[in-house]
Each structure stands twice: as structure tokens, then as C-alpha cells.
């Protein structure tokens, strides 16, 4: 008991000293002024009117809303013809997506065609991008199988071209494209070149479910863009993850300009 009392009396002043110290210290970090950039998103789709989104980036510490840029001018050039997309905000009722610039004109796009994008505003900012039209890769089969609990898994198959490096995006929506996707990921043929490829799922579906299955044959620049977005989302708020930047396909700003070549099937899960 004497030894314990001696140790306690020796530690008590030290504990009092530690608790009385102010261990918090404010550190002021001076950040350089943030320079906003044009944020551009434009996808060319078969038999669809020309549409684009042009916004302005903001600092990480600002409200997470990107301002519109009404004075931005958008130009798309195909086969020597340049088309201007006027500022005319609208929401697509089918997908729920918003667009800031649009033109009710369709391009006669063929695989291998090169299309360019140019965006500029009155602040002197200038964004350019290029996309090469991809060919469609057909979905060969969409199959499903039930387990003993009447739950079904989905299996989607296609044939990869052995003579080219290919990149894909696979999506599954329940009932409608306006709903959030049930599955959404990108892949390459680096390990499956020239093979018949199948994408599976868990036992996530029931009898009567309507599924919209989409297979996109995409450019590498779109693959890199989507992969970087996925990495950035994973790193956000994770103190152990490396910071990740968005890999843009455009020059002079942030964003993506590409074309969407896809094969799409709608199936109803039945026994």
C-alpha cells in the first residue's frame, strides 16, 4: 500500500500539469485563390439531338452547386460542318438528366468518324475535345436462373473483338432508364481479348422484374474518365486513401466529350 501511495503521489502533479495545458492550437493555412474552370459534359448518341452541359467549377469549400454559364458558346463539328448549340436549359424526361445547350439536329454518325467540340465564354476560357465514333457490340444473350428461394441471377454475354483493344460499360436498370442503375461498371478486354465475355450478378431479381440491360462500347478516354470518378468517390472522406483527380478528355477545362455506342435489351424475368 505504501508503494502504491508513493506512485500515486508522484503521478498526481504530472496529471494535473497535463490537464491544465492547452493542447489545441489553431493553424491558419493560406490557400492560393481558386481559379474556376469550365466544366463540360457532352455525349453523342445515335439518332439523338445534340445536347451538352456547360457549368463552372467552384472551390472545394463552396456550396456543392456548379453555376450555369449562359454566355458559353458550344460548337460541334462533323464532316466539315459546324453546328452551334444555343443556351437552352432543359431536363430529359426519360433519363432525368439536365442539359444547358441543345440543338434539335441529328448527325449521321458512322464508326470511325471524328467529331470535335469547342466551348468558349466571354472570360476567354476555351475548351476543346475530340471523339471517334465507336461501333456497336451486340449482346448475344441475356439469361437468368432461379434458386430455391425464387431469386434469380442475371447473366449477360457478348463476343469481344480480338483485333482491337476494347473498353465497355455495362448497366442494368430496373423498369426504366430514369431509375437508378442496379449495376454500373466499366471493364476492358486486357484479360479477355477475343473471348466470349459474360457479366453475372447476385440473386437480386424476382419473377416479373423488368430489366433494361445496356452494353456500351466506349473509348479509352471515357473508360479513364469513369474510372477516375469511381476512384475519387472512393477516396472522398477516406483518410487512408490517396487523393484522386478526375481524368478529363477535354483540354482547357474539366469534363468529357465522347460518343455512346450501345446495344440495349429489355427483358422480363420469368420462370
UniProtKB/TrEMBL annotation:
Report the source organism. Answer: Pontibacter virosus
Source organism superkingdom: Bacteria
| Name under which the protein is recorded | Uncharacterized protein DUF4249
Amino acid at each position: 500500500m505504501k508503494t502504491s501511495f508513493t506512485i500515486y503521489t508522484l503521478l498526481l502533479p504530472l496529471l494535473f500539469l497535463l490537464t491544465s495545458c492547452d493542447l489545441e492550437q489553431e493553424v491558419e493555412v493560406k490557400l492560393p485563390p481558386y481559379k474556376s474552370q469550365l466544366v463540360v459534359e457532352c455525349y453523342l448518341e445515335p439518332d439523338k439531338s445534340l445536347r451538352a452541359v456547360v457549368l463552372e467549377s467552384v472551390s472545394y469549400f463552396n456550396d456543392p452547386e456548379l453555376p450555369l454559364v449562359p454566355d458559353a458558346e458550344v460548337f460541334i463539328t462533323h464532316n466539315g460542318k459546324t453546328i452551334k448549340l444555343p443556351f437552352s436549359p432543359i431536363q430529359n424526361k426519360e433519363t432525368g438528366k439536365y442539359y444547358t445547350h441543345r440543338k434539335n439536329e441529328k448527325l449521321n454518325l458512322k464508326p470511325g468518324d471524328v467529331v470535335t467540340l469547342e466551348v468558349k465564354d466571354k472570360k476567354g476560357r476555351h475548351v476543346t475535345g475530340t471523339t471517334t465514333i465507336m461501333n456497336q457490340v451486340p449482346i448475344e444473350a441475356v439469361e437468368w436462373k432461379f434458386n430455391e428461394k425464387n431469386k434469380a441471377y442475371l447473366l449477360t454475354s457478348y463476343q469481344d473483338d480480338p483485333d482491337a483493344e476494347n473498353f465497355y460499360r455495362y448497366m442494368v436498370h430496373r423498369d426504366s432508364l430514369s431509375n437508378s442503375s442496379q449495376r454500373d461498371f466499366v471493364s476492358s478486354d486486357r484479360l479477355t481479348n477475343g473471348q466470349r465475355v459474360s457479366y453475372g450478378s447476385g440473386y437480386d431479381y424476382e419473377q416479373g422484374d423488368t430489366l433494361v440491360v445496356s452494353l456500351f462500347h466506349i473509348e479509352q478516354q471515357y473508360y479513364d474518365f469513369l474510372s477516375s470518378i469511381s476512384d475519387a468517390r472512393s477516396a472522398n472522406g477516406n483518410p487512408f486513401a490517396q487523393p484522386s483527380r478526375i481524368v478529363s478528355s477535354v483540354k482547357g477545362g474539366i469534363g468529357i466529350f465522347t460518343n455512346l455506342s450501345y446495344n440495349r435489351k429489355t427483358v422480363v424475368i420469368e420462370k
